[in-house]
Specification:
Distance between the termini: 14 Å
Order of helices and strands: HHHHHHHHHHHHHHHHHH
Number of domains: 2
Number of helices: 18
Oligomer: single chain
Shape: globular
Radius of gyration: 22 Å
Strand content: under 5%
Amino acid sequence: MSALKQIIKSKSFSSLIGNGLGALLGVFTFALLARLLPKDIFGPWLVFLAFYGIFETLRIGMVMNALVKNLAQAHSEEEEELVVGSSLFITLLLTVIYVIVITVLYFVFGAFNLFPDYLFFFKWFVVMAFVTAPNNFATWYLNAKLHIVSMSMIRIINQLVFIVYIWFVIQYKPNLHEVFVGYALSHLVVSIVAVAAGWSGVQHLLKYTRDYLLKIFHFGKFSMGTLIGSNLLRSSDTFIIGSSMLGAAGVALFNVPTRIIEIIEMPLRSFAVTALPQFAKLYAAKAYDQLRKEFERKAGLVFFLLLPISISSFIFADYIVLLIGGKSYSESAVLLRFFASYMAILPLDKFSGVMLDTINKPDLNFYKVLIQLAVNIAGDYIGIYVFGNLQSVAFVSTVTFIAGMLFGYRQLNKEIGVSFKNVIILGWNEFVFKIKSILKKTPIET
C-alpha cells in the first residue's frame, strides 16, 4: 500500500485529480448547453469562445511559461516578488492594449456594417478581458509554485458557478445573453476569490524591474506565438467549418468530440503542469543528462498511460457521444474515432514543446506549431471542398500532430540528444515498473 499512498500524495496525482474534476465539469457544462440551446445559438457561442480564446492565448503565451520558468529558478523571496510583479505588469498592459483594439474595431465594424450578427461579441470581449485577469494570473502563479490543490480549487469553483447559473437561469431563458452573463459571473466570482487569497499577485504589482520585464518579454514573444498558433490550430477547424457549406450545425457536430478530447487530455495537462518547473530546475542546475532521461521517462510514461484511453474511445465512441451530446449528435461518433487515432500522440507532441521551452528554445517550439497550423489549414480546406465532410477534417488532425511531433523530436535530438526510441523504451519500463510496484505493494519514487 505504501507505493499507492506515495502516488496519491504526489504532485502529478493531485494535478490529475484537480484537472480531472475541472475537465469533467467542463464537459458537463458543454453537455448541458448542447441540450438546452438550439444549434443556431449553440454554434455562435462556440464561435465566441474560439475568438476570445485567441486573446487568452496572447496573455497566457506572453506570461505563463515565462512566469513558471523564472519562479522555478528564483533564488530568494525578493527575486520571486520581482518576477511576479513584472509578470503581472505585462499581463495588465496586454489587457489594456487588447481592450483599446477591440473598442476601435467595434466602432469601425459598426460604421461599415461588418459582421452585424456578431457585433455584440465585442462588448463581451471587453468585459471578459477584465473579469478573467485575476483568475488567470492566479492559476499561472499557483502552477509555478506547484500549489496544485489551490489551483484546482479555483478552476472547479469557476465551473460550478457557471453550472449553477445554467441550471437555474439558462434552462428557463435559453439565449446567448444569459450564457454570456453566466460565463462572466463565474469568472468574476473566482477572480474575487483569487484577489482575497493573495494569489492574483496584485500586492506585488509595483515590484517590477526593466530587466525582468525584458526577460519575460523576450521569452514570452515566442511562447505567445506558440500558443496563438496552438489556439488557431484548434480554432481553425471551427472557423473553416463555420464558413463552409457545413455551417453552424457542422461546428456543433465537430465540437462534441472535440470536447470529449479535453477529458482525454486531462492526464496530459496534469503531468505537463508539474513537468515544466521540474525540468526548469534541472536545466538551471546544468544537469543535462538527468534532464534528458527525466524527459524520456516521463513523456514515454504518459504515452502508455493514455494509450488504453485512446483505444477505449475508439471502441466505445457511440456510447460516449450519446452520453455527452445526446441522440442529436450521434453523427459525431465517427469523428471521435478519427480523433482517437491521435490521442496517444498528444503526450509525445506536448512534452516536446515543454522541453523546447525548458532549454530556452521557444523559437523552435513556435516553428513546430507553425508547421502544424499550415498542415491543418491546408488539409481542412482540401477535406471540406474536395470530400465535403467532417470526417476528412478529423483525419487531418492526426496528420497535423504527427508532423509536429516529428519536428519536435528532431530538434530535441539535435539540441540535447533526446532519442525517440528511448522515450518508448524508458516510458514502457517506467509504466511496467509502476504497475508492478503497486501490485507488489512496494514503495516507488513519485
